[in-house]
Amino acid sequence: GAVVSQHPSRVICKSGTSVKIECRSLDFQATTMFWYRQFPKKSLMLMATSNEGSKATYEQGVEKDKFLINHASLTLSTLTVTSAHPEDSSFYICSAGGATTNEKLFFGSGTQLSVL
Amino acid sequence: DQQVKQNSPSLSVQEGRISILNCDYTNSMFDYFLWYKKYPAEGPTFLISISSIKDKNEDGRFTVFLNKSAKHLSLHIVPSQPGDSAVYFCAASARANQFYFGTGTSLTVIP
Question: How does pLDDT run across A7-32, given as a tens digit for each residue?
Fold first, then answer.
């Protein structure tokens, strides 16, 4: 089946630094990718929808300047957490869907971000 | 406000028995529903789906039932196996490629 690779799987950084998370679709073209944040014991919260070649669509309450999303190609989307703070510590997951996978979302393995 | 709810955070079932995971939703515009399975430290993986034109979809040991009037869907796993132990998320969609997830139910299948 389709594979989505997310990197890094874990990152620890100091407060105030920026962290970039990559999401790649390995064997299909992903015109749309999604970024989620998971809080302990809570659902995956959709943060933004990333469309190849255009600006991302952010969900209400998600800061665009804080969470920069770039989807420059059909196989790569990046999420940059700028000036990270301890409250940004969370598990971030991407998912991808393309024309051939319209009924299914394929998820990356997630990135555990810890901001000290 | 949570549009998709899984009111049971956990469930324990004996191996070989039936596991029933429930999911309720509030948005009557949802017309496509999915179940995802998630192991610790991994992203959720797609399990089974159902569209609103059906009330049942079966795939091997997994069956999803949809009751539109009650805005309720359930996932049945029979027979349950220890490898089924995971967190199960239901998700709903009103338009392509955007899904709302429930909070998940942690299933433990006891050998």
Answer: 998 899 999 999 999 999 888 888 88
For residue B97, is pLDDT > 50? no
Å from A43 to nearest chain B CA?
Answer: 4
Nearest to A33 by CA among A115, A113, A92: A92
Is A22 at the interface with chain B, CB within 8 A? Answer: no
DSSP secondary-structure letter at B77? Answer: E
Q: How are beta strands A76-81 and A67-73 bridged, if at all?
A: antiparallel
- Please tell me which residue of chain B has the smallest CA distance to A100: B97
Tell if the CB–CB gap between A44 and B89 is shorter than 8 Å: yes
Question: Strand, coil or helix: what is B83?
Answer: helix
Which two tokens mark B14? 């004996």
Task: Answer whether A32 touches B (CB < 8 Å).
Answer: yes
Burial class (CB in 10 A: 0-12, 13-18, 19+), A13: middle
Residue B85 has pLDDT above 60, yes or no: yes
Distance, CA of B101 to CA of B3 (rounded, Å): 8
pLDDT per position as a tens digit, B18-75: 999 999 999 999 998 989 887 765 667 778 989 999 999 999 999 999 999 999 999 9
CB contact under 8 A, A93 and B45: no
- List chain A residues with pLDDT less than 70: 1-2, 39-43, 97-105
Chain position carrying tokens 């956990």 = B10
